[in-house]
Amino acid sequence: MQFKFLFFALLITSTTLHAQWDPTKKCYIDGGTNDCLSNTILTALPFLRISPDARSGAMGDAGVSLTADPAAMHHNAARLAFAEEDLGLSITYSPWLRNLGIDDIFLLYLSGFKKLDDNQALGLAVRYFSLGTIEFTDANGNDQGTGRPNEFEINLGYSRKLSPVLSASLSAKFVYSNLATGQFVGTSQISAARSFGADLGLFYRNKLGQSGRRNYLNAGLAITNVGSKVTYVKGVVKDFIPTNLAIGATYEMNFDDFNSLSITGEINKLLVPTPIQPSDSAYDANHNSYADYREKPLFEGILGCFNDAPGGFSAELQALMYNVALEYWYDKQFAVRAGYFHENSLKGDRKYLTLGLGLKYNIFGMNLSYLVPTTNNRSPLANTLRFTLFFDFTNRNKNKSTPAEN
After folding, report:
1. Model pLDDT for residues 264-310, shown as the tens digit of each residue
2. Superfamily of segment(s) 2-10+19-393
3. H/E/C letters for each residue in the chain?
4. Where are the domains of the chain?
5. Is the pTM of this model over 0.70?
């Protein structure tokens, strides 16, 4: 499907002109209506934050503390050191923004891992995001031709057990974003954006109970997309990519040889500066026409994001995103999943339920997820589907004691 795309503002900017901070309401308010205004944290390359697999997609996008699967490369590669399979591969396809009537935008995700031994694993993932066919116009509506914008990420990771219950991972990635190469913003020509980055992860998995059937407690922590800032136009201030901190835990209960239930909770926070409205005196203190928060160096922006929100600590809490989910397995072959994602109404207002199913037979399996918004506003993510096919190649000499982990 083709749709008009006016590319005069690739740079992230705010359009709020008459906003001021209200310490009582703990938000920026509209000077005319006194209503709270959204202060969403925006970044470049937002496709990096899309949960690409159907398993996590059915579990409220949680994934930092789940048992190992090939898609761990997105959430927390440290999970791979605890994989019971010797080799795992998966492919996920997700049509994107279908609720807006757009039929040519999609996300494709290929991922896999290989155990080197009982303590080490290598992982590889490739993410491709197609934005379909776009008709470019200038600020006056004149035809500037068509293009097929796309973005991709290549991610290579290494995971190793530090002890029988703890593992760590380090991943390196390259990201490429071609949105409108050759087009112009004013007199400046647009080029592709490139970024090099890294992911860091920790994963804890321990048996609970001294005898009989054992349950498991998982915990995970991951800092993802720590990478160079990007711009599409030379000579313009660069923007942060979506560096993210995820902390979560999963409790896995094995009732008998056939039934297991996992409960997952997770908290996410973007490690980028909080936007400041143009009407705020701190927006451009050096008077160079660029927002000061956008000009911060990479690590200053990451380390300072915990105390830079107007309104202090209570405003920082608004930036947290919450995920909760359940995963039920029957006979290691059939899974039912459900989850919920919550984001503050002033930080994007994404609130949705997720549902999904999983099937596994021998080395082959498939997962499906479906997204249901819970807000009254029309959501572009409504009815989003994700389809995953996966293959697990297990060393049959190993004694499996836990449910299928995909």
Report:
1. 999 999 999 998 888 777 788 887 888 888 989 999 999 999 988 88
2. monomeric porin ompg (2.40.160.40)
3. CEEEEECCCCCCCCCCCCEEEECCCCEEEECCCCCEECCCCCCCCHHHHCCCCHHHHCCCCCCCCCCCCCCHHHHCHHHHHHCCCCEEEEEEEEECCHHHCCCCCEEEEEEEEEECCCCEEEEEEEEEEECCEEEEECCCCCEEEEECCEEEEEEEEEEEEEECCEEEEEEEEEEEEECCCCCEECCEEECCEEEEEEEEEEEEEEEECCCCCCEEEEEEEEEEEEECCECCECCCCCECCCCEEEEEEEEEEECCCCEEEEEEEEEEEECCCCCCCCCCCCCCCCCCCCCHHHHCCHHHHHHHCCCCCCCCHHHHHCCCEEEEEEEEEECCCEEEEEEEEEECCCCCCCEEEEEEEEEEECCEEEEEEEEEECCCCCCCCCCCEEEEEEEEECCCCCCCCCCCCC
4. 2-10+19-393
5. yes
